[in-house]
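Q: Predict the bound structure with iron/sulfur cluster.
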Amino acid sequence: MVDVLRIKDLIVEYTTQRGTARAVDRVSLTLGENRTLGLAGESGCGKSTLGRSLMKLVPYPGKIVSGDIILNIDHDITWKKGTIKKGDVSILELNDDQLRMIRGSEIAYIFQDPMTSLNPMLSIGKHFIQIQQAHDPTIEDEQALERAKEVLESLGILAERVDDYPHQFSGGMRQRVMIGLGLVLRPRLLIADEPTTSLDVIVEAQILEEMAELKEKFNLTMILITHNLGVLAQTADDVAIMYTGRLAELAPTEALFENPQHPYTEALLQSVPDVTKPDKKLAWIPGAPPDLVNPPDGCMFNPRCPFAMDICKQEEPPLIQSDTGGLVACHLYGRS
Ligand code: SF4
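A: Predicted complex:
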């Protein structure tokens, strides 16, 4: 299996008036072709910053400090200013023109809020035309609209609605449009950032089902960013749990849900309601994530962890192989 994406020791920081906050801290992971990786964790754990880094779209005052992001491209990309040869490409070494060619066509990003991501002054069709013509100015409007209609229909939206404006669509339909815009250039890697957050559970289930079908149809590799573990249980092949910008645990989905290794993963799972156990008391994680400008020594989770030992307050746990076929960063493991 080809590795579509390799992230190596990535560090992303935000400079604030109080100091530097490290939002992504030495994250390394690999994503094979056709796989879906779920990225989960509390708000502020760095999952969206990590996702945006993959397109070099970290918002100011954030900055990718070091590391590498390698994307595998399966064909040459040629445009009037040059060619990007197929094979492994370092995203961080691409110039603005090259990035423009990669964004949308090789890596696409579905942003969290469809209402603010769509331009209220443009029809849905115009959004599709602009995206396609930005990558290929020779595409005529009519041709781009035909492709838009095809994509919209595959998402259950009538073709004639290309002439409508964003405010004429419901929340679920707008989210489908965003997914369509992400797919119209047939990217290899799709990053979906909380794609169903603002939707009710029925529409959420429909959209997740459609995304699973589209993944097969378009041969997609996906990163799904969410705080909703239930969504990942249904859709992801592997799940990475992030805490304070670091990987706490990474494991195949079934193993992670059945046998979580990291105390933080376990606590997150305990806090998910279970409809089959209506009497079960919901657990909660005491305290709050630490201040990233002044993080605690040792394991970042130690102030909230019921298993914290002396070493946890002094030494950061390394990420090691876990018994469930994944990786875990916790002093409870790997010590003789
Ligand atoms: Fe808890 Fe220590 Fe493991 Fe951190 S390293 S999760 S504090 S047991």
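A: The chain has two domains: 3-236, 246-328.
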